[in-house]
Each structure stands twice: as C-alpha cells, then as structure tokens.
Amino acid sequence: MTINKKILLAKRPKGLPDKDTFKFVETEIIKPEKGEVLIRTLYVSVDPYMRGRMIDAPSYVPPYQLDDVLGGGALGEIVESKSDQFEQGDIVLGSFGWQSYYTAKQDEVRKVDKDIAPISTYLGILGMTGLTAYFGLLDIGKPKEGETVVISGAAGAVGSVVGQIAKIKGARVVGIAGTDEKNQYLKEELHFDEAINYKTSTNLQEDIAKACPNGVDVYFDNVGGEISDAVHTNLNKYARISVCGAISSYNLKEEDIGPRIQTTLIKKSVLMQGFTVGDFANRLAEGSEALAKWLQDGKLKYEETIIDGFDNIPDAFLDLFEGNNIGKLLVKVDK
Amino acid sequence: MTINKKILLAKRPKGLPDKDTFKFVETEIIKPEKGEVLIRTLYVSVDPYMRGRMIDAPSYVPPYQLDDVLGGGALGEIVESKSDQFEQGDIVLGSFGWQSYYTAKQDEVRKVDKDIAPISTYLGILGMTGLTAYFGLLDIGKPKEGETVVISGAAGAVGSVVGQIAKIKGARVVGIAGTDEKNQYLKEELHFDEAINYKTSTNLQEDIAKACPNGVDVYFDNVGGEISDAVHTNLNKYARISVCGAISSYNLKEEDIGPRIQTTLIKKSVLMQGFTVGDFANRLAEGSEALAKWLQDGKLKYEETIIDGFDNIPDAFLDLFEGNNIGKLLVKVDK
C-alpha cells in the first residue's frame, strides 16, 4: 500500500512559524476515479506569501484551515491516469502543495513541456515567480529606457527576474539584498548596475541616493519596512512603486508602523500599486511566452536552491525568512 | 501715491503657523511698462498646500523664500494696461498671491469670463479647486456606477466638488467631515448618501464599514493620518486611492507615523496615487469646460466662505487648519 505523506497546518503562528506550526501525517492514497489522475510529487515550491495564508484573515487567497494540507505550487509525475487528457509519465503543475501524492481532477493540473527547460523552472522563472516579475514590473512599474529601477529582495526568486527584465528594457538597475554574496551574484551574473547590502549599510537612504544619481523612477518592492522607507525618500517625480511583497512584516507580532506615505506620493505625484499575479490571470500566456523566449535566447538567467527531502519542507520554508537563498527555493521530494 | 500692501514669509513655521510667520509691508506700486498690466487685487485664495511651501524642502512647487510675498491664486481688476491683450476693467486670474496690487507681465495672468459665474468661482469650483477634484476623482479614482466613493475632508473646497462629481457618475458617496453642520450640508445640500463625523465617532473604522455596506471602491484622500488608516481597512479588491492632500500632517512637528500601507495594497490589489492639478496641465480646458457645464446645468453646487479685508488673510489661512469652513475659503480685499 502506498502511503501519502502530508504536512498540515497544526497551529496558526504568531511571529515566525516554528515546529509547532506544522504537523506530519500519513494517509492512504486515494485511487483515482474517472476523470482523475494520481500524481507523485516531484518538487514543491515554498513561497513567502504562504506565511500570509497561515493567519485567519481575508486576503487575495483564502487562509489555510487548521489541519489542511499546506497548499501551494507543486510539480508531479502522473503515476496512474483515469483521464483521457493525461498519460502515465506526464509531468503536471498544480497547487496541491505539501504532500507526496495527490489525486487530482483533470482540470486541477496542467501538463508542462519538458523540452523548453528543466521542469523545476515551471515553479520558478517560467511559473508564478517569473510571471509575478513580468507583470509587476511591466504593467505597474512601466520602466522606460534609461530610467532607474530599484528592487528590494533583489536576489530572491522574483527580484532576480525583475532586474533582468528591467535590463532587457534598457533601464539602470539597482538591487538591494542582504549579503555581499548575493550582491556579487546580482552584479556579476545578472549584470545589475549596482547592488546595495542593506545589512552592512550605515545609511541606506544615502547609499540608495549614491547608487541612483538620477533618482528612482521605478521601485519594485518585495520587502516593505525600513528598506522601503529609505527608497521612498529617493523617488523621482512620477515614480511608480510596484508593491509585490512585504516580507519584513510577515512575521511581526505587532502592527507594522512607519512613516505614512501620503505626503511623499503627493509631492512627487507617485503611483503605488499592490498586485498579485492573479490580477493578470487572463494574460498569463503572454507572460509565459515572453519569459520562455528570453530564457531560450539566453537573456534571462535563473538560480535555484533545491533542498532534498520531503521532511525538509518546513525548514526550507523557514529559510525564506532567513534570507539565505538566492533565486527560487524548491524542495525535491524523495522517491 | 498708491501703496501696495504685501504679506511676506517672515519665518518658517514649526508646527502651526502663527503671527510670527507673517510680515506686513507696504511698498510703492510699480508702474507697468510695455506688455505689462497693473492689477488691483480683488480676491485671494488661501489653500492648505501653501503650508507645504513654507518649509524649505523640494516639492511640486518651489518653497517660498523668506521675505517673499506669499504667492497663490488671486483675482484682480486691471487698473492700468500697457498690453494690447488687456483693457482697464478686465478681471484676471494669476498666482500673484497676498498683495493688494501687482504689476504683471501679460502672459502671467489670464482673463476670466464674468458671464459664466461669479468671478470668485475662478478661485474655487471653476479654478484649481474644481480641477483638482475633477482630475483626481475621474483620472485616478475612476468611479464606476454603483461603486462606493469615500471622501475625507468632504466639506472642504475640493472634497465637496469630488462628492458631487461622484454622484453625477452614479456612485454611492460617503463623506467624512468634522462637524454635524458640515455633514448636514453634505447630505441635504449636496445629496451625499452618508456622512460621518470623525470627531464624534467612537470607532471610525466601524462607522465607515456601516456607511459602506459594499466596501470602499474609491477613496479620495484630503487628510491622511488616522482617518485614512480607518478608510484603508475598508477597501475593496481593486480599490483606488486618489491622494490629494494630507492636511492632518502639515503642521506636525514630528514625523507622520502610522501603519505602513504595503500589505493592504497587496492583499486587495489597490492602486494609490498622489497627484496635483499640475499633472494635468495639458488637459485643463477639458476639465474647465466640464465643470462650467455642470455648474450651468445646476448639477454642481458650491459654497464659499468669504472673509473681508486684506489684513485678515493670515487668519483666514489659519482657519483652514481649524476645520471651521465649508467649501472654498477666500479673502475679499478691501478697496
């Protein structure tokens, strides 16, 4: 009998999630019925937004329920098909999350093309990560050639793609990240024009000003908090802020307090817009095609950090908040 | 010899401006030369944004210099013309501000049409005030029929126009103001659907929720601060915030601190945009025509508070921060 390993939400975290947040259980797999497929999980994605779903508050995705499997992007191989749309061996993408097997209705998953790029990229640069970067930068940030784009969380899964797309569009690109190793990667591998280490900076506002002698036209914000406060003081007239994430606040136990933004927005006629990739649901094909083309043309690079072993998923997730990884963080599920 | 009375910036205020902020001086008038006109001031406008120009920091308009005349919207009558574009008796609009006479180059002022409406309206509903409401609401807020529009500073010069335009566009309109008298005016005279007194509310967030059973789609923000914090918690998915003013912060001696907005913007995919009417400089004719038409059709009402006497200009300006006035606040300059 094949056993399905699952990781459930055991307890809603206050502050940083810990071992008590998660519960490992084993259940029997459910045999697929007509129109269904049985999937063996190959990779699962761990993403900062999942922290938001662990609290019981309305958001753009519904909160996790207690004792629910922690859902999220995952890739698997079809081991048994009762659907005429899939064959055994097909690789499929879905939101089945942190479990080693999943019995899906055929319309819950979609087949991915193994020939374009390694399949793991469908959880990263060719998946929601890349699409988030694509739409957030191009539809909200709208960088023009020669403008300056600043990205926080720049070495992360989304930020590293944003910077490269901004370079493709002819912008000057400045990344903010938390280690010299990340910044070296941004400059040497991804050709960012400048990179700032916010952890070693003694005056971030000034360091941003130095790295952006013509001011900041577009700010792609993954982090919020004091880093963003410092960027906001350097905005140009008619700047655009694409608000993608606020990882600095996700594990706060108290309210996220800081300078109110209104006066800055008025003085500089700034646009600030929050978004999630779901806002562009009817244009995902456009984004996917552009990303795949750039990837195939060698214009986009990506880095993946792949952790081995199903049991390590919670630790991999917690690593996101340590800021240790470069690029996309994935867990490869053992056979 | 005719004497020109002027009010200068004597000292940059910290906190609320007071008598020491202003200095009254008298100079001789300057005789107009070829291409110039001599204007006797009839009305001057006092506006919250002028507080921002009293501090020495870059903004969308340059700061006032010490011992400069406090510039701003003003209407006057031409008493002597050396320009072939103007005749004695013409009424002109300019930015000559707090002085009883002004010698203008002919391209610094424009003639207004006395037949459309009382001339004072060119400093209010037919002037920058009305245009600010028009563009801020329609270009940023973009209210759709049946949507809910919330306005802070709703009984002020801009807010009262915003609400009426939102009604013309078929929205449900909820105003926030600081006295029952103002709210009575908003509901009875301007046909706002609801009006909330933030000073007597014991739970503003809840009162807004009650007044907006379908949530808030558009927030036109004149005030910032805690009132706006309370509105932000009631925003709908895809809400738009038109950030026009932050009067709650203009006289703060310390930094304006409150809940950071990023998480709200992300969760609801909210757009927040600061603006000034100058951003729409190439479309002012469109706005002026629409406002004049609505005014002539009886679809727009306006209230003016007119203070008499040049010497009362600073007090009238300070009244703006007391929140005592309804509609546009002007000073009629004595002959």
From TrEMBL, chains A, B:
Keywords, alphabetical: Oxidoreductase
Organism: Saliterribacillus persicus
Gene Ontology terms for molecular function: oxidoreductase activity, acting on the CH-CH group of donors, NAD or NADP as acceptor
Database matches in InterPro entries: ADH-like_C, ADH_N_2, ER, GroES-like_sf, MDR_fam, NAD(P)-bd_dom_sf
Enoyl reductase (ER) domain sequence ranges: 15-331
Residues that span the membrane, as ranges: none
PANTHER family: PROSTAGLANDIN REDUCTASE (PTHR43205), PROSTAGLANDIN REDUCTASE 1 (PTHR43205:SF7)
Stored Pfam families: ADH_N_2, ADH_zinc_N
Name by which UniProt lists this protein: Enoyl reductase (ER) domain-containing protein
